[in-house]
Amino acid sequence: MSYVTVGQENGQSIELYFEDHGSGQAVVLIHGFPLNGHSWERQEAALLDAGYRVITYDRRGFGASSKPSTGYDYDTFTRDLDALLSHLDLREVVLVGFSMGTGEVSRYLGQYGSERVSKAVLIGPIPPYLLKTADNPEGVDQQVFEGIKDAIRKDRAAYLTQFFENFYNTDALLGSRVSQEVLRLSWNVAARASARATLACVDTWLTDFRADIAKIDVPTLIIHGDADRILPFDATAKRLPELIAGSELVVIANGPHNVLWTFAEEVNAALLTFLQK
User: What amino acid positions are annotated as catalytic residues?
Assistant: First the structure.
């Protein structure tokens, strides 16, 4: 098992678990909430078969990474990513984020630039800015996020069950594009995450990425399902082509939030076509 140390808490190392497979151009896959790096299994298989080197890692607080009490903000998440890229001395890397992972991609390019990065992919993105404000009327009302935090505090296990119903749009797709076993697997992975991290991450969804995405200067692919109930298309991906110069948008018809699993073939085809350009 491979780890990179990204900090300390009370004299103990904070470590990120990562996996590094294959050869060729490196593609770093950054997972969504509340899963871990293994949630990319369908994309990892396609990328390895196509001759890419694939690196996945678990965000702090999730998966096999350390679960500290602090550091649940995008500046820290991005420093963690930079520590991994530096540890592996990656160059010409492709950064691919899903959901929360699109925040790391955006902030990394905004703060660290593109010296190490050749392309970016944002799948089910959280940017540009999810919170409704006077200068961001397309966003989501603050009370929605307060309700999510209350539900997690009251009964995290029950919240996760409801979350995954909307993560996969089970009323429409269960039995056809997602199985009960996948739901069970996702719930089990999420339940093992840090309870503190699960709660703290909700506030990170309200991060303003507008200044970061304005600095993106590499070819960028955006993929989003038009039936996303977690990160609404109109508040997120639909706005990005005008904000990221030269970006491409692929919309997955009837796609829920987790198109990585439910529409894997479509996502993989778009991803590989983009990488081969």
Answer: 99, 228, 257
